Sequence to fold (489 residues):
Amino acid sequence: MSAFQELMAYQRDTEALAQVGGRLGWDQETVMPRGAAQQRGTEMGVIEAVLHARRCDPRVGEWLERAEAPDAAGQAQLREIAREHERSLKVPADLARRLAQVTSQAQGKWAEARANEDFSAFRPILEEVVSLKRQEGAALAQEGDPYDALLDGYEPATNAAQIAAMFDAMRPRLVALRAAILERPMPQGLTRQFDEAGQMELSRELAGAFGYDWTRGRLDMAVHPFCSGSGDDVRITTRIDSADPFNCLYSTIHEVGHATYEQAINPDYALTPLGRGASMGVHESQSRIYENQLGRSRAFCGWLFDRMRTSFGDLSVADADAFYAAVNRVHNGYIRTEADEVQYNLHIMLRFDLERALISGDLAVGDLEAAWNDRFKQDFGYAVDCPSNGCLQDVHWSVGLFGYFPTYTLGNLYAGCLNEALRRDLPDLDDQLGKGDLGGATGWLRDKVQRHGGLYLPAEVIGRASGMPVTEEPLLTYLEAKFGALYRL
Fold:
């Protein structure tokens, strides 16, 4: 075999092992018995140690020096393998293993602390996670910014200064739009209970309508909805609130956006670095456009209104227009994943600033709860009432995902660009959505974005798909037009 072929064969084994590790993570958050947490942490640590050793293997560097790519996809494979190899070499093996072990254990402690409304019970292990992530960031950054180094693991070719500039450009218009809306009468929401079985049945139907391949996936319950896996095994989770079916339905649609991205990637890329999304921001663009620009559109809400009445009977809203207003209500709330489109990015800005301060050392973990509560009161105008509605609401920091949060807003920006191009290319899109037909929209996204996997860098894949550079303008224009009409601004 050529050096390129040897490298790719080796890489496929590494990718397959990483998928096994991911499956352990899925099991931990869905069906693993609570008493297994300590052992699972050890298991995850061992797998990470093996993966780290494989990624640092000197043969990888030797193959990279000698490999000649046969085509553009091969060049992209070498780019991504080299990137992973270089990052891995910077992180000591014992640190990588310890991170995997501690974050596995921290996830369970976070879930327990969240259920008991007790940040102090979570604080010790979070302090250990933050300490380890600071070490990892410093190792990766060398002489640079540790937070930028962590961010680069989720969104290549992006740094905190660029994101902060985008946030600074977005914040005034989002704050002004939010203030104008909250001065208007709030639409009525749904006021009855919705049974779990009915919500899950409709969630499964919606997942199929948005293109989820059930022969290669499954839907389960979790504390925090997520998507796991790639290729021929891509799993999603959701959660249920009997008083709020939109939580379950739109969480499912959101995760299906992630899942169909993974399922649609060119099968030639399976178990290679190109066999996954281009970045977490691009990944989020798919889940957000599925959930919001498609799933919360007036046209699709009209179809969903009729479908929900078939399943649940009277919905406590008068008609399809009132249902559309209920789906898109802008209202006070604590939870990021339940936030409306207008306020969602303000939640991300709060987390971005706090996690940068944690990694830099400007904020101690012991002061995190108070800092969160103070910032939330400043940004949203009311006080956090309990830890599960505050700094314990998200799983991300417990599992070490520092640098991940800003990719949610990047995903929204990318989705804004894609939505503008999608509607330009499919002028009859609303007619399709009004019939519950997602095939045109999801097919467009599959062709323009999803099938390419990691072939292109994030800004390139969005630019190629949308025909425009990435800016915040399409998203802000969309939000101002949609909610301006809804609230008669």
DSSP finds 20 helices and three strands in the chain. The longest strand covers residues 233-238. The radius of gyration is 22 Å.
